[in-house]
Amino acid sequence: DAEITQSPRHKITETGRQVTLACHQTWNHNNMFWYRQDLGHGLRLIHYSYGVQDTNKGEVSDGYSVSRSNTEDLPLTLESAASSQTSVYFCASSEFGTSSAEQYFGPGTRLTVT
Amino acid sequence: GEDVEQSLFLSVREGDSSVINCTYTDSSSTYLYWYKQEPGAGLQLLTYIFSNMDMKQDQRLTVLLNKKDKHLSLRIADTQTGDSAIYFCAESPSGGSYIPTFGRGTSLIVHP
Questions:
Q1: How far apart are CA A23 and CA A31, in angstroms?
Q2: Does the pLDDT of residue A28 top 60, yes or no?
Q3: Contact between A42 and B41 using a beta-carbon 8 Å cutoff
Q4: Separation in Å, CA of B16 to nearest CA in chain A
Q5: Is A75 within 8 Å of A21 (Cβ atoms)?
Q6: Which of B12-16, B24-28, B86-90 has the weakest average pLDDT?
Q7: How confident is the model at residue A86 (pLDDT cuts 50, 70, 90)?
Q8: Interface A-B: count of C-beta contacts within 8 A
Q9: What is the mean pLDDT of residues B53-58?
Q10: Nearest to A101 among B42, B93, B105 (CB)
Q11: Is the peptide bond before A107 cis (omega within 30 degrees of 0)?
């Protein structure tokens, strides 16, 4: 069965370290997204991609970067982790077309920056 | 701009009906969605409704859409403890975007 996975599921890192969160989907979807979820803020979009070599900034992109070298993967990098980036991160994917808002979510990565 | 509003919490007794409400602002939305997030998991699509429909029923779930008032509701009949979760309302993107707009989520607490 097709799925979307994230790794690691939990990560503790120190302020200033570079951290990469992995996202892998086997839906063969063109669209991929990264969100962070914080109490009181709901889901906030960090970065998204509509295909290989395409990346775009979301509403809270500062301090984050992504790259899309193939259809299946969209890793999220925190260049220099800050305590404000402690959050739960979700990757999602969707297909082009009229059902494009139907997103498939990964299980999430809980990141703690100390 | 686009905005989707939901109340943050709803508490119901097991066996009662739950009604979760949502208001949206983009009248050009084609689809409106309800997602469910169980503790420690990602969001999962629960149901959706086309904007040209007023109601959709799926087993214990009933979605009502009032397009004039831009109001969407999700009714869960015979609510069970397993229904305890966060429920997100979302409207489909418009203007060539593929990004839905999510509400902040309603935490449904079901108590015995």
A1: 12
A2: yes
A3: no
A4: 27
A5: yes
A6: B24-28
A7: very high
A8: 56
A9: 93
A10: B93
A11: no
Q: Are A86 and A15 in contact (CB under 8 A)?
A: no
**pLDDT(B5) > 90:** yes
Nearest CA in chain A to B101: A101
B94 neighbourhood in chain A, CB within 8 Å: none
Cβ-contact A70, A54 below 8 angstroms? no
**Spacing of C-alpha A86 from chain mean position:** 14
Residues 6 or more apart whose Cβ sits within 8 Å of residue A15: A81, A82, A83, A113, A114
User: Mean of the pLDDT values across residues B25-34?
Assistant: 83
Give the closest of B40, B45, B103 to A102, CB-based: B45
**Is the CB of A100 inside 8 Å of chain B's CB atoms?**
yes
A19: which residues sit within 8 A by CB, 6+ positions away? A11, A13, A77, A78, A81, A111
CA atoms of B45 and B37, how far apart (whole Å): 9
Q: pLDDT tens, B36-47?
A: 999 999 999 999
Cβ A62 vs Cβ A5: under 8 Å? no
Nearest to A107 among B41, B100, B104 (CB): B41
Read off the pLDDT of residues B8-23 as tens digits, 9 standing for 90 and up: 999 999 999 999 999 9
